[in-house]
Amino acid sequence: MGRVLIIGAGGVGGVVAHKCAQAPKVFTDICLASRTLEKCKRIKNQLRRPISIAQVDADRPAEVVRLIRKFRPEMVMNTALPYQDIAIMEACLRTSVNYLDTANYEPPGEAKYSYKRQWAYKVKFRRKGIMALLGCGFDPGVSNIFCAYARKRCFDEIHSVDIMDCNGGEHGHPFATNFNPEINIREITQRGKYWENGRWHTTDPLSAHKSFDFPGIGRRDMYLLYHEELESLVKNIRGLKRIRFWMTFGEQYLTHLRVLRNVGMTRIDPVMFEGRPVVPLRFLKALLPEPASLGKNYKGKTNIGCMIEGVKDGRRRKIYIYNICDHAACYREVRAQAVSYTTGVPAMIGAMLVLNGTWKGRGVFNAEELDPDPFMAKLNIHGLPWILEDRSNEA
Ligand code: NDP
């Protein structure tokens, strides 16, 4: 039924390739392309059915256009980095092909991500009769869908949302990031930001924190961060009075991060080194383990969910809706750790719903703008079952 081109053969791209390969009726033909062909080969060799592979530099729209014309996909799934979003969207527009990604655009020279440049493509995509589905990983992605499901099924009004992302796993390295190190460190070293009573509030990086007893994991400290889905959910969930995003970090991780920041290794501006400009964070990325390499010895679980409060039938209601994912089980299934898995599975589901015609739309969409029911059903089938706890009795 559908031909799909996956761009980016890292941790997430590998999971997407595995999960698409598991659904041959929907994904009849798969091409995995990336900057380094060797990484595509490694993933291809893990699969039980043949796929095509290709080398592409997705920073160059003309190269992506050439590849699209050759492979003729119905959808391009961008699992490369946020830097490539605009170039790949541009290539999709030129060739009239649907687009999906898992992280919003940010320019390399400034750690400031926003949907604005991608939303600006709305009219162009609509005119071409194609769809761009933005941020279809777990957070963003499933976090947006959980909010849309709560709005549709659980509440008359939603007043507050706390998105909580806990990785209770151990990978055995002194310091590693679970998704692309450069993107991850840029995200968490920014000022925190949340939305309350009609305006944005900012906090010093990693200064606001509290603890929560995560089902399946236990009590963990979590830190307030700005995260991209806040930008679209504030727009799309009407009546919202507050929305925040929290992520857990262990003491060892924070100590490493503090030292790296203090010595300047998280800087994103070039510094001259032996006569050549070097971006310290890019150099650091080259030293750190790749996310795709972490899976083998990873133990423990993730718990990512939304704590949502509001009103149903005139009474206060509070729910926690979440998924628990086991690192070792992910590795057994698709040779990846749970952070790549929880991102790649929703991307596959989003592509599936577009390709099989369940999600129809022309233009540029965030996940909460589409019907959450078929997506929620597929999460249970494809490896990310969810649990909804009524916590209305809690303060
Ligand atoms: P990785 O670093 O493991 O993989 C990124 C891949 O993209 C690498 O294979 C890299 O190639 C490739 N790539 C980079 N630049 C280009 C380019 N110009 N052309 C072609 N390929 C390129 O990262 P992850 O797999 O961990 O993350 C992938 C994306 O998923 C990121 O954008 C991340 O922010 C997002 N993400 C989203 C989450 C969510 O829940 N929504 C959670 C986790 C991640 P090479 O190996 O040659 O460098």
Description of the structure:
The structure is a single chain. With 395 residues, this protein is α/β, with parallel strands linked by helices. It has two domains: 2-134, Rossmann fold (3-Layer(aba) Sandwich); 142-336 and 376-390, Dihydrodipicolinate Reductase, domain 2 (2-Layer Sandwich), CATH 3.30.360.10. Helices cover 35% and strands 28% of the residues. The strands form three sheets. Strands 7, 8, 9, 10, 11, 12, 15, 16 and 18 form a nine-stranded mixed β-sheet that branches. It has a seven-stranded parallel β-sheet with strand order 3-2-1-4-5-6-17, sandwiched between helices. A hairpin with a 3-residue loop joins strand 10 (209-214) and strand 11 (218-225). Helix 1 crosses helix 13, helix 3 (61-71) crosses helix 4 and helix 7 crosses helix 14 (372-381). The chain is globular and about 55 Å long. It starts with a strand and ends in a 5-residue tail after the last strand. The mean pLDDT is 97. Bound molecules: NADPH dihydro-nicotinamide-adenine-dinucleotide phosphate. NADPH dihydro-nicotinamide-adenine-dinucleotide phosphate (NDP) is lined by residues 7-13, 34-36, 39, 56-59, 79-82, 84, 102-103, 135, 137-141, 179-180, 183, 290-292, 339-340, 343. NADPH dihydro-nicotinamide-adenine-dinucleotide phosphate (NDP) binds next to helix 1 and helix 13.
